[in-house]
Design brief:
The chain is mostly helical and 68 residues long. The chain contains 3 helices and 2 strands; from the N terminus they run αβααβ. It has a two-stranded antiparallel sheet. α2 packs antiparallel against α3.
Length: 68
């Protein structure tokens, strides 16, 4: 997601790819709840600017990863 080839498509494409991988391996899927989108975008910017990946990874694991 760090390389922004397109204005906004990379985040969506990354989530689609991640979901394809997770579902194919029986690990669930990612969904970013609408109420959490502003925080998700802030965490992405922080990551782009050098924040440790663990910060956004923890956010995704705790709020966005749905297992079945």
């Amino acid at each position: 997601m760090k390389t922004q080839v397109f204005t906004d498509g990379n985040k969506r494409a990354s989530v689609i790819f991640a979901n394809h991988y997770l579902i194919a391996h029986g690990e669930g899927f990612l969904v970013i709840p609408e109420k959490d989108v502003p925080e998700f975008k802030k965490l992405l910017i922080d990551f782009y600017e050098g924040e440790a990946i663990e910060v956004i990874s923890n956010f995704m694991r705790e709020r966005c990863w749905k297992s079945f």
